[in-house]
Amino acid sequence: MIPISEYVLEMNHISKQYGDNQVLSDVSLKVRPGEIHALLGENGAGKSTLMNILFGMPVITETGGFQGEVLIDGQEVHIKSPHQAIEHGIGMVHQEFMLIPGFSVTENIKLNREISKPNLVSRLLGHDLEVLDSATMEQDARQALDKIGIAISEAEKIRNLPVGYMQFVEIAREIDKSGIKLLVFDEPTAVLTESEADILIGVMQALADEGIGIIFITHRLAEVMKATQGVTVLRDGKLAAHRETSQTTLSELAALMVGRGGADQIDDNSRDFPEDAPRAMVIRDLYVDMPGEAVRGLNLSVFEGEILGIGGLAGQGKIGIPNGIMGIYPAEGHVELFGEPLPLNDSRGSLKRGLAMVSEDRRGVGLLLDQSIEDNIVFSAMQVNGDFLGAAPFRLKNAREIRQTADQMMKELDVRATSPLQPVGTLSGGNQQKVCIARALALKPRFLFVSEPTRGIDIGAKKLVIDTLLKLNRELNLTIVMVSSELLELKSICDRIAIVTEGKVSAILKPSDSNENFGLAMSGIAVEGGN
Amino acid sequence: MTELNRPNINIGKHLKEYVVTYVFLILSVIFIIVSGRPMNDILFQIMSRLVRNLFIVLSLIIPIITGMGINFAITIGAMAAQVGMLLAINWSLTGIAGILVSALITVPLASAFGFLIGSLLNKMKGQETIGSLILGYFANGAYQLLFLFVFGMIIPLSEKVTIVGATGVRNTLDLTINKLQGAIDGVLRIHFSTALYIVSGIILVGAIILFVTKRMSSRRFYTLGGLTVLFLIIYHLPFVQPSFANVHVPVVTFVLVGLLCLFNAGIMKTRLGQQFRAVGQSRTVANSAGINVNRVRLIAIMLSTVLAGWGQIIFIQNLGTLQTYSAHEMVGLYAGAAILVGGASINRATNGQAIIGCLLFHTLFVVAQDAGTVMFGNPVVGEYFRVFLCYGVIAVALVMHTWRSHTAKKKMSALQA
């Protein structure tokens, strides 16, 4: 029969809800010792929640825990804090480096696990006052680095290391902890160059050969095929599939990951534009320095009058595109708007040239929450174009004109409110989003960026917002670029969908293209576009 | 902590980092020349100001390294020390005994206040500098209530320290009566030249021993030895030595200052010190490594508050009078300005920076009035200039910190690489 410890980790029938929101239901994950096991899923599929449960993060324990059982080496464990997780031999290599730039490699590897010698004072006042034993610490660090075969000096400061090497310091820190059984790699290859990623996978294999179980969270399917033995795919908080890597294919995994609903279930509103149709916007070699959403050398053209969708996983740079072009985050590159060059890093200039944006950060950037609906609607137009103002020299607000516009907009966009004087902070998410759109429209734009328009609003309101965008496009011939994490949403109204991975466009697809193609494009594998 | 001793110093970067220090150095030289004051008088003044202030300035280092900025709330530590001194005077304790009792009373009081300050600052991470500044002002009100009303009315005090015929503590307490004046300084005073020879001797012998036992690099040995010999030679130049004629060194005070320097450097080599540094550089990373960030920050502030209290005792015994209601007022500002002048920033500081800063800041203080008189015919202009410099240097440091952390952010080129 199966020995008790066939699996180093078993997570069985895990369910978790945050309030009414079911984020995981009946998910299982099993990892053998010495196995590299991939954990796949789109954003919001539940990967991070599952890992938070494994590490006993406060975000789980403080929200009522979870259902299901966690077994380590066949023994049921109850992990209540990250500290306990470490004691059980579970380590994590973070996506965001948990390293201190001003510390040496040794100091980082040994952070809060310093080796120290007792002295007179420390015997009196506790071991916090023990003096560090740098020599032994450096030896340990050297050993850990040698084990993964990385030839960096243990005395070097982290800030002097190339980005790719920081990952290895993180790994060295984890394996320096004694009794490590299971290592979680959270998107470790996302910031690495191809050759660095190869080295990393080599290191992972070497660790696995020593019997350490590895959970490899990634979106690069090619790496999954190359390095892993087993794959668990999550989708919408449910277990989509469990596969042995040898018995699956790249395309199957891609389809499993994106999965939900066939292409036939959505109304395809897409239209074809000829290759030589006039361009509303041409983006060449765009770089945007938006933290967590950097754009790195992106090229893209938008036809006049089309709705272009921009999709892709979080952190790949899709949100950086509108924010960079609108001058909200520093950008470099060449952008042409209706044939004229658009100066970058100049929000006011962008707005004046007929660009408008509905921001993904509705409450932070999009709205003045304490102000009334009508003030919000006309605010940008008043500031940028000087509309809604009375005669010179005083140029007071023209209350009548403002009220007329607000009433009209609220009627057209169906904003549900008691009056145009209601503060927007008191509106529901969906209605706030409509006010954002109204505000962008008050600028009388020729080109509209809409970023994550349905984030955080309920299903009914989502449909209204999407329908509104479609109507604006069809009736006013407004060119719209819509950035969204919801593929289904993009498919329902876009003419073309550009998928952004690692700051570049990896593919431009038609809404009718298969899930498999979308999945592959999101993992950065080039696919033949629909047109 | 010894960033300065790194072998590959980039001169341009160095100048940029220490621009404030060099400006102060140049200003000091100009002012000394303009003021026309005799050199031996200036040096005498500078020495007595160093004795008074060094300890307090050094107490700022630990919170800076812990990433809490300049702890202007050391003012509150000073208040605790003044409570201690008041009680010592009230109990008619004299000399060293009085000082020791004041220092002992300071410890629980300043620790408790430090705990409260730290708890509050933990709730306003990122704004510690301004928070501690305002806390100092706030505490001043509580202090006045205590000294004007609670002492005398609720806690009985002897007539030696209260206002006769009213409640509250006297405006000025004379320390000469209890022989508290110079109780630390007066234990042993030696002439500057003697002190110089002794210190040079210790450095040279120590360096040779460390060098022979191969615990010091030859480069460092030659720099240190060369500098020491150079100082000795400069001191013996005919126009230098007479300037120091009046300068005496209070040995015990300087030993205390030296011990604090050793403490500041030594604690950084312990687990706790590693935690200070880790928390100072990244709270997120420190937290993920299992360090209790709030606890570490609390300890840093408590240490700083107690040390500042002891510093205030040194300050007051040197002055000889306790201005009950104003002695603590400028403690935080002057100490903060001094350490910034030395090239510290609100997230990096060393003993050396504190000492150099204290020296330059107080040199300018000593000569500014006379320079003002000579240049503008009005001593008040010099006084204005002094105040302007004090606040100016703090403002510059805060602005430069924001500016630096802004430019240090990931550059566009890093993305394109």
What is the topology?
The complex is a heterodimer of chains A (531) and B (417).
Chain A: E1 9-18, E2 21-31, E3 36-40, H1 47-54, H2 58-61, E4 67-72, E5 75-77, H3 82-87, E6 90-93, H4 105-109, E7 116-117, H5 120-125, E8 131-132, H6 134-147, H7 163-176, E9 182-186, H8 194-209, E10 213-217, H9 221-227, E11 230-235, E12 238-244, H10 250-258, E13 279-288, E14 295-303, E15 307-311, H11 320-325, E16 331-337, E17 340-341, H12 347-352, E18 355-358, H13 362-366, H14 373-385, H15 399-412, H16 429-442, E19 447-451, H17 459-476, E20 479-483, H18 487-493, E21 496-501, E22 504-509, H19 515-522
Parallel strand pairs in A: 3-10, 3-11, 6-9, 9-10, 15-20, 15-21, 18-19, 19-20
Antiparallel strand pairs in A: 1-2, 1-4, 4-5, 7-8, 11-12, 13-14, 13-16, 16-17, 21-22
Helix pairs in contact in A: 6-7, 10-19, 14-15, 14-16, 15-16
Chain B: H1 11-17, H2 19-35, H3 39-58, H4 61-65, H5 74-90, H6 95-123, H7 128-153, E1 172-174, E2 189-191, H8 192-212, H9 218-235, E3 248-250, H10 251-267, H11 271-281, H12 283-288, H13 293-319, E4 321-323, H14 331-341, H15 351-376, H16 379-407, H17 412-416
Helix pairs in contact in B: 2-15, 3-10, 3-13, 3-14, 3-15, 5-6, 5-7, 5-13, 6-7, 6-13, 8-9, 11-13, 14-15, 14-16, 15-16
Characterize the structure shown.
The complex is a heterodimer of chains A (531) and B (417). Chain A is an alpha/beta fold and 531 residues long. Helix content of chain A is 34%, strand content 24%. Chain A has three domains: 1-89 and 179-261, P-loop containing nucleotide triphosphate hydrolases (Rossmann fold); 102-173, no CATH class; 278-522, 3-Layer(aba) Sandwich (Rossmann fold), CATH 3.40.50.300. Chain B is mostly helical. Chain B folds into two domains: 1-35 and 330-405, no CATH class; 63-328, no CATH class. Chain B has 17 helices and four strands. In chain B, helix 11 (271-281) packs across helix 13. Chain B is globular and about 65 Å long. The interface between A and B is medium-sized, with 32 and 24 residues.
